[in-house]
């Protein structure tokens, strides 16, 4: 069921029609193996605090539920604890809202220990936000009046404490995961390997593109959230440059902030990337709205910024305290059309082998503001069209601010070779009479540091 608001609320949803949103909700439902027997859009003139929808609509769906006996009724909206409780009581059926549905999908998809930890943390954080008044078995146990609580209050406090203890334990475990990933990233940096992260709306073809570029065989299916756990593979470009390609979880509209918080350990592959490939489904009629959703998530991760402060870099990533106060999702969002990138972004217009892609791409190419923000590469991960050009575009983006140099390192400055291996890409080296002759690819900043530290080094 998709509640559709009118007026200002509807204006905020520009870019997606009610039918599009309902279709996505159906796909989400089918992603966990449920069969959809009925689906409808409900117009809301006002939102009822107690049940979200009006009494007439509620009665219609109650009668339908008694006829169809559904195992679950799903609302493509975020329900308050009171609304959730009242709807289950009035409809006499299990009710899920959009957040709970996405959490169910993630719980089913998680394969690794890290993925399961992150899903459990997201689920418990969501559950904590609706602990009060949502558990009817505790409500029945309450006694007394005013400020005098009965045994149910004690049980509620006990459950809350157990929940918080488990959340703290999960956060500590995930901090260990983040530290381990940090060590791995540091090792890759010492080896001079750039990290390129694939991001995009779910089912945009990221995993298929990842397989096509690396020769890997990770799961790539026409389904939402086929990829949940991150996958990394090394890739050598024709220029000799080595990079690490990271496939990450797909994004979606109204992604629950509990998931963004819980999956921060995984999404740090994006946070720390040298280059982002934003994979877009060029055949999808909603691809503009999907782009805005992806940019919103990137901004919440600190990889996007507003044009008013284009030179401000994101703050350094730090481990959060064990039980930080949850930041409201409203506090971290700005209109997506005010976003610009703070690291290189290549838009990969994927699925160009689909006939529907031509119209979308033609419209985008006539957008006067588009080229100022992103480089573009058009591909079909299925047919292989455009992949060579994409790799060349990646190589060009990563070479920005770098230069290839032929250096002569005197034997007396032998420590310089160790420095070069750590902070540059040594493409070749050979011992000659005067010292070591090395061909290196080095950033402008590191070249300046090298000259100051080892002034005896010269170019050939």
Features:
460 residues; Rossmann fold; Alpha-Beta Plaits; six-stranded mixed β-sheet; four-stranded antiparallel β-sheet; 16 helices
Quick summary of this structure?
By secondary structure, the protein is α/β, with parallel strands linked by helices.
Please describe the topology of this protein.
Layout: E1 2-5, H1 8-12, H2 18-30, E2 41-44, H3 55-68, E3 73-74, H4 81-91, E4 95-96, H5 98-109, H6 113-129, H7 136-139, H8 151-190, E5 194-200, H9 206-214, E6 231-236, E7 242-247, H10 257-262, H11 264-271, E8 275-281, H12 287-300, E9 304-305, E10 340-341, E11 345-350, H13 357-365, E12 375-378, H14 387-398, E13 402-410, H15 415-423, E14 425-431, E15 435-443, H16 444-453, E16 458-459
Parallel strand pairs: 1-2, 3-4, 5-7, 5-8, 8-11, 11-12
Antiparallel strand pairs: 6-7, 9-10, 13-15, 13-16, 14-15
Helix pairs in contact: 5-6, 6-8
Textual characterization of the structure:
Helix content is 42%, strand content 17%. The protein is α/β, with parallel strands linked by helices and 460 residues long. It folds into three domains: 2-96, GTPase HflX, N-terminal domain (Rossmann fold), CATH 3.40.50; 194-398, P-loop containing nucleotide triphosphate hydrolases (Rossmann fold), CATH 3.40.50.300; 402-459, Alpha-Beta Plaits (2-Layer Sandwich). The protein has a six-stranded mixed sheet with strand order 6-7-5-8-11-12, with helices on both faces. Strand 11 (345-350), helix 13 (357-365) and strand 12 (375-378) form a beta-alpha-beta unit. Helix 5 runs antiparallel to helix 6 (113-129) and helix 6 packs antiparallel against helix 8. The radius of gyration is 26 Å and the shape is elongated. The model is unreliable at 7-13, 133-152 and 306-341 (pLDDT under 50).
